[in-house]
Design a protein that fits this description.
By secondary structure, the chain is an all-alpha fold. Helix content is about 70%, strand content about 0%. It is built from four helices and no strands. It is rod-shaped.
């Protein structure tokens, strides 16, 4: 006769109890949720920056003399389509911007 321990399943571990597993899964969900919130915040911030730059494109292009309204609209729409082009445009000198705009209008770019 034994002490009753022979019926005990020795593969059971208190560290693997259903409660501990549920807590572990919740922590993983919370961590993923936190990561998602951080990513969404970063995306929102980037979109805000791009939106502000897009708003400035029109005013920057209007500084260039002798452009018709139709030409301004055409160039603004062309530049605003590309995040990379927006960055390039705003990192150029005013002279460089003017040359880029003229190149767009001439079909050189």
């Amino acid at each position: 006769m034994g002490n009753g321990l022979e019926d005990f399943d020795d593969s059971f571990s208190p560290l693997q109890s259903p409660r501990n597993e549920a807590v572990h899964k919740q922590k993983r969900r919370n961590s993923a949720s936190s990561d998602n919130l951080t990513m969404m915040s970063d995306i929102k911030e980037a979109a805000s920056i791009i939106g502000k730059k897009r708003q400035k494109i029109d005013s920057e292009i209007r500084k260039i003399t002798n452009l018709t309204t139709a030409e301004v609209i055409k160039v603004v729409c062309h530049i605003a389509k590309s995040h990379e082009l927006i960055d390039v445009f705003f990192n150029m000198t005013e002279e460089g911007r003017e040359e880029l705009v003229r190149a767009f209008l001439n079909g050189d770019v």
